[in-house]
UniProtKB/TrEMBL annotation, chain A:
Residues 88-301 form the ABC transmembrane type-1 domain. This is ABC transporter permease. Coiled coil: none annotated. CDD domains: TM_PBP2. The chain crosses the membrane at residues 21-46, 93-113, 125-147, 167-185, 228-245, 280-304. GO terms for cellular component: plasma membrane. It comes from Flexivirga endophytica. It holds the Pfam family BPD_transp_1. It is a multi-pass membrane protein.
Length: 312, 440
């Protein structure tokens, strides 16, 4: 009899302990539902209805269109589907180049600045400037520098005797390369920061032992640094891939809502369908296709590399 | 107990605050205890940016709104919105149903925004409340919505295109202002000296709005309408192609600075003209503000109507301008109509037309946006006899963006050295038309 109240109290405490984590994550879950999941569900619904200007004042009256927006986007023989495909291809090329270059530059800088030398702190700070600068300010500065008549880029190229100084950097095919360079400039400090942090977790003893065994710098990088950085690389490349594939700021600030064809990457393409042509249903269908693609790629990436990691 | 209570309270507070956010009114209008049209009402007004900056607009409109408050007791909460954001803000307000009471719109958006059903139709009683249809210039009033329906906007500021020319440069070259498009082309060639950085014509080559405006005006000169009688896009007719070619050829013929293909913000082309880097400029009459700000005196330039090719229709502009609309779900309809009446009254027009360099929207009113009487007369004449509205169809704004951007790409092609052929132009217009079709 006397032990009962003690048991009750213990049960109460146990329940509280069991429920506390749920209470703690509840705000995050609620906000995630409201900010991400709910709009996503609404977006999927929008992709099945003909939500155009005539219905935006009362969404519920928009006619049901079923899969016709998806069919339109995926009919690559039609001009609309073809331009969606073109935009997808441009985005893939943009992503591969930006992620590849950002990783290479970040890795190189991290390897150099990992070693102790005079002025290391200065270079570390300098390299982080693009990452610390507000995105819009950075891209707008680039857009001034890339102007034809009074842009710094043409001025420097002309001074060096490389061009006549009359190249266009923001129209035609050069627009794509300008966009890639700016995105790399903006992204590589992140790769640098992550990889530098990763490098600092590798004990110096391992390198010392490898040196004693006669391993040169390249062998050390190949057999010690790269395998040790694998977990960092796995996450970082995925994050860079997702950010770059969904990049909106770079093309939008550089070119506005209607970029040149060479720089028509998918996020701006979808924006154009929704906010230029006011066809929110079709824009949503393309967004859902993009989401599905990114889910598949991310899932496959994690599956493949996690398996390899487990095997290793 | 405490362990359970604290998280529960936190969650409850979060939910409550989120719900409160969802339930708050975004309208910004409030009834300060007064009646619909009486003292104490506060209207929210979204004004478009008409002056050289948003601050300038606030300074211009502020005293007028105070005057309105003094006359009626109705307070107006002013928000001046920049052009790049205005349409999207209107769309968001339309979608959420929480917008201002009264707002300015680009008059070419009027039919598209009418189709959303978000704006109050100006039926006969609403028109009577703002002073009647007859007080407006008919050409400007016609931009208020599609034909056959009550308009959902009324004109506030009128603008038209004219051909500005630099008097000194023309005199030095022994030229007179052109009266045909062929003369304009010949003059432009004579006035171009690329080595010295001077060109015959200034162009806002990256602006999709300018591109579609000139494609439309020149298409009209060739007798082409972008939409057929049933409202379907017809962008690839020979007249449309010829109209686009007429505009793009200015770049192909190198009478325009190739760098101007990147001009898209508004003041760059007038800036080139004001600084003597270009001898001619095709612009709306509110360019006066920019020219003066860039140091050009009104006596240094002249204005004539943009000429048509010999034997073609003498259309020199479309009816540009700013209209005023009232949100349908305003709680202060009468007060809103009173405000529209005030802003479109001859007395206010006379005041506002000066800083905003606009033509009056009132029938019979004399333009006072410039002290140059010849310029004022030219623009008034263009509005009265040589201007037609842009297509009054529901998907007009899509037409503007799709055709405008297609023409921008063609200008870019011309600037980089490959003059677009007629078939290039037709293909670009076909693609713009296909995009319209997808939007349904």
């Amino acid at each position: 009899m006397t032990s009962r109240p003690t048991v009750k109290r213990a049960g109460g405490r146990g329940n509280a302990r069991r429920l506390t984590p749920y209470f703690l994550i509840a705000p995050a879950i609620i906000l995630e539902l409201l900010i991400h999941i709910l709009p996503m569900i609404v977006g999927v619904w929008m992709s099945f209805v003909g939500l155009t200007q005539a219905f935006i004042a009362n969404w519920s009256t928009a006619p049901w269109k079923g899969l016709s927006s998806y069919k339109l986007a995926l009919d690559f023989s039609s001009p609309i589907g073809n331009s969606f495909l073109h935009s997808f291809e441009v985005t893939c090329l943009y992503t591969v180049l930006v992620v590849g270059c950002a990783w290479f530059l970040g890795m190189s800088a991290a390897l150099v600045l990992h070693r102790n030398f005079r002025g290391r702190g200065f270079f570390r700070t300098l390299f982080l400037v693009p990452y610390a600068m507000p995105i819009y300010t950075g891209i707008m500065t680039w857009s001034f520098m890339l102007q034809r008549d009074n842009g710094l880029v043409n001025h420097v190229l002309k001074s060096l005797g490389l061009t006549n100084g009359d190249s266009f950097w923001l129209i035609g095919s050069n627009a794509f390369w300008s966009m890639v360079i700016i995105a790399v400039w903006r992204s590589w400090p992140f790769a640098f920061l992550m990889l530098l942090a990763g490098l600092q977790n590798i004990p110096d003893d391992v390198y010392d032992a490898a040196s004693v065994d006669g391993a040169g710098i390249w062998k050390q990088i190949r057999y010690i640094t790269m395998p040790a950085l694998r977990p960092v690389n796995l996450v970082m490349v995925l994050m860079l891939f997702l950010w770059t594939f969904n990049d909106f700021n770079t093309p939008f600030v550089l070119f506005g809502a209607q970029p040149p064809k060479s720089a028509d990457i998918i996020s701006v393409h979808i924006y154009g369908a929704s906010f230029v042509n006011w066809d929110f249903g079709f824009g949503s269908a393309m967004s859902v296709l993009l989401l599905a693609f990114l889910l598949v790629v991310t899932g496959a990436y994690l599956l493949i590399f996690n398996r390899r990691s487990r095997r290793a | 107990m405490k362990t359970r209570l604290i998280p529960a309270l936190v969650v409850a507070a979060m939910v409550a605050s989120t719900a409160a956010c969802g339930g708050s009114s975004g309208s910004g209008s409030s009834d300060g205890g007064g009646g619909d049209s009486g003292s104490g009402t506060t209207l929210t007004y979204w004004a478009s940016n008409q002056g050289s900056s948003i601050d300038v607009d606030k300074k211009v409109l502020g005293p007028e709104l105070k005057k309105f408050e003094k006359q009626t007791g109705i307070k107006v909460d002013l928000q001046v919105i920049g052009w790049p954001d205005l349409l999207n803000k209107i769309l968001a307000a339309t979608s959420s149903g929480k917008g201002p009471d009264v707002l300015n719109i680009g008059n070419t958006w009027a039919p598209s925004l009418q189709a959303t059903g978000a704006f109050l139709p100006f039926d006969s009683s609403a028109l009577t409340a703002i002073g009647g249809k007859s007080k407006f210039v008919p050409a400007s009033f016609a931009t208020g919505g599609v034909k056959g329906k009550d308009p959902t906007s009324v004109p506030l500021y009128s603008l038209v295109y004219g051909l500005y020319y630099n008097k000194k440069m023309f005199a030095e070259a022994g030229l007179k202002p052109p009266t045909t498009w062929e003369e304009l082309q010949t003059d432009a060639r004579k006035l171009t000296d690329a080595d010295k950085g001077t060109y015959g014509m200034a162009m806002e080559g990256g602006s999709y709005t300018e591109s579609v405006h000139f494609s439309f005006i020149f298409g009209q000169q060739h007798g082409a309408d972008p939409f057929d009688s049933s409202g379907k896009p017809n962008f690839t007719s020979p007249g449309m192609v010829a109209g686009v070619k007429q505009y793009v050829d200015l770049m192909s013929n190198k009478v325009v600075n190739p760098s101007s293909v990147q001009y898209k913000n508004g003041p760059e082309a007038p800036g080139d003209f004001a600084k003597g880097k270009a001898a001619m400029l095709m612009s709306q009459n509110n360019a006066d503000n920019t020219l003066v700000a860039d140091g050009m005196k009104t006596s240094e330039y002249g204005v004539v109507a943009i000429p048509a090719p010999t034997g073609k229709k003498d259309t020199a502009s479309f009816v540009a301008g700013i209209n005023m609309s009232v949100f349908k779900n305003t709680k202060h309809k009468d007060a809103a109509l009173k405000f529209v009446k005030f802003m479109t009254s001859p007395a206010e027009q006379k005041i506002l037309d000066v800083p905003f360099a606009a033509l009056p929207v009132n029938a019979g009113a004399t333009p006072n946006f410039t002290k140059n009487a010849a310029e004022a007369k030219t623009f008034q004449n263009i509005l009265a006899t040589k201007a037609v509205p842009l297509p009054l169809v529901a998907n007009e704004s899509q037409y503007e963006t799709n055709v405008g951007n297609a023409v921008n790409q063609l200008i870019a092609q011309a600037a980089t050295g490959k003059a677009p052929s007629e078939s290039d132009i037709k293909a670009a217009l076909q693609q713009a038309q296909d995009k319209m079709a997808s939007a349904g």
